[in-house]
Amino acid sequence: MEKQKLESMLIDYIDNRLNTVDKRVVEQELVNNAESYKLYEELKEVMHLMDRSARIEPSAKLRAGFDDLLKEEMTSARQTKTVFFQPALYRVAAAVALLILGGGIGFWISHQREERQLAERERLEALEKQMQITQQMMAMLQNGQSASQRIQGVNVAVSMGKADDEIVNALVKTMNEDPNSNVRLAALDALSKFSDDAAVRKALVTSLQKQKDPVVQISLIQLLVKMKEKSVVNDLRKIVDDEKTMQAVKDEAYSGILRLS
Amino acid sequence: MTDELIMEAVKRGELQQATLLFERYHKRIFNFLARMTMDRALAEDLTQNVFLRIIKYRTSYREGNKFQSWIYQVARNVFSDHYQANKNKFSDFVDVEKISDHMADLEEHEAQDEKEKLLHQSMARLSEEQRELLVLTRFQQMKYEEVAAIMDTTVANIKVKVHRAILKLREYYFEMEKI
C-alpha cells in the first residue's frame, strides 16, 4: 500500500473513522507488516497522549480581570449612550435627518449660486445694452445726416439718466459746434439736466466764452443764472462790453449780472 | 439559551450577558492559548484580551454566524497580534529544552512523566499552523467541521493538514525519545 495512504488510514483507524472494508484492509496490513505495526503503535501513543492531556485550569486572576473589564465597558457604554442614539431606529432617523439637511444645504447653495449667476448675467446684459445705446447715440450725434436725427441722439442721451464723460463731451461738442441752432439748443437743454455734475458745470461755463449763436447764448445765460454760477459774472461783463454782441444777448447778460451779484 | 442568542443580546447593549459567554468559553480559550503560547501567565492575559475584543467589537458580530467560530477567530487574531507586536514568531524564541519547565508550572495537576515532557517539546517544534490544528482537534477535541469553520477552509483540507501534523509530531517525538 502507498505509504501516505497507509499513514492516513492508520490515523483514521485509531480514531475509529474507517468503514468496515477499510478497517479490514488496515488490520490485514498490521498483521502482515511489522513496520506498519510499529508506525501504528507510535501514532497511537502520540494521539492518545494528546487526547488524554488534562485541561489546564486558569487562575482566579482571569475571572477577576474579566469582571473588571466588563464593569469598565458597561460604564463607558452608558456614557456613550448619552452621546449616540442607541436604538437603531433613532440612529436611522438621525441619519435621514442629516441626509435631508445636507441635501437642503446643497440645494440652497446651488440655488444661491444660480441666483448670483442670473444677477450677474442681467447686470452684464444691462451694461451691454447701455453701451449699445451710447454707441447709437454717439453715432446719431456725430454723424446724423439730418438735424432731427441729431436731436433724437440728444434725446437718447437725456433718457439715459446719468451722463458719463463720453456723453457730456459729445453733448458739449454738439452744443458748441452743431451747424443747426435747434440741435445746439437741444444739446444745451440736455446738459442742463446734468447740471449737478461738476464736469457739466465746467463745460457750460467754458462754453459761454466760445458761444456765438445768440439763441444758444441767451439760453445758456439763463441756465447759468438759474444754476447760480457766480464764476461767470466776469464772462457776462465781457459779453455786455463786446460790441459785436446782439442787444438781446447783452440784455440777458446784464440781467444775469444783476441776479448773480 | 444558545451562544448566538446571548451574543446578539450583548451586541444590542446587554453587556452583562457577556458573563454567560465567559462562563462557557474562558477555559477553552485559555487552554487553546496556553497550548499555543506554552506560557500560563501570557495565556491568561491573552484570554482577557479575547473577551475584551468580544465586548468592544460586539457590533462586528454578524447575526446568524456561529459564536464558537467567531470567538476562536478572535483568539487566533489575539495570538498572532501578540507575536507580531513582539516581532517574533513563537518558534523563533521558544527554547525547546525549557518547555517542560514552563509546562511543569502549567500542568501542576498532571503527572509530569517523561512522555508528557516529550510531547510538549515535540509540539513546540511544530509549525504554528500544525500546532494550532493539533490543539484544536486533539487537545480541544473539536470536529474537523468546526475547525474548518474557524479557519474558513474545507473539511478535506483540514483533515489532510491534521494528518500531516500528527505524522510530524510522531516523527519529532520518537526522534527525541532516542536522545
**Number of separate strands of chain B:** 0
Report the sheet with the most strands of chain B, covering strand number, pairing sense and barrel closure. Answer: none
Q: What is the name of the CATH class of the largest domain in chain B?
A: Mainly Alpha
Contiguous low-pLDDT stretches of chain A (5 residues minimum) are: none
Pfam families (chain B): Sigma70_r2, Sigma70_r4_2
Family (chain B): Belongs to the sigma-70 factor family. ECF subfamily.
Domain RNA polymerase sigma factor 70 region 4 type (chain B): 118-169
GO molecular function (chain B): DNA binding; sigma factor activity
Describe this structure in words.
The complex is a heterodimer of chains A (261) and B (179). Chain A is an all-alpha fold and 261 residues long. Helices cover 81% and strands 0% of the residues of chain A. Chain A has three domains: 3-51, no CATH class; 118-193; 195-261, no CATH class. In chain A, helix 5 runs antiparallel to helix 6, helix 8 (181-193) packs parallel to helix 10 and helix 10 (214-226) packs parallel to helix 12 (247-260). Chain B has helices spanning 3-11, 18-37, 40-56, 67-85, 90-93, 99-106, 114-125, 128-139, 144-151, 155-178. In chain B, helix 4 packs across helix 9 and helix 7 (114-125) crosses helix 10 (155-178). Chain B starts with a helix and ends with a helix. Chain B has 179 residues and is an all-alpha fold. The A-B interface holds A 7-8, 11, 39, 42-43, 45-47, 49-51, 53-59, 61-63, 65-66, 69-70, 73-74, 77, 81, 86 and B 13, 15-16, 18-19, 22, 26-27, 30-31, 34-35, 40, 43-44, 47-48, 51-52, 55-56, 106-107, 109-110, 115-116, 119, 122, 134, 138-139, 141, 163, 166-167, 169-170, 173-174. Chain B: This is RNA polymerase sigma factor.
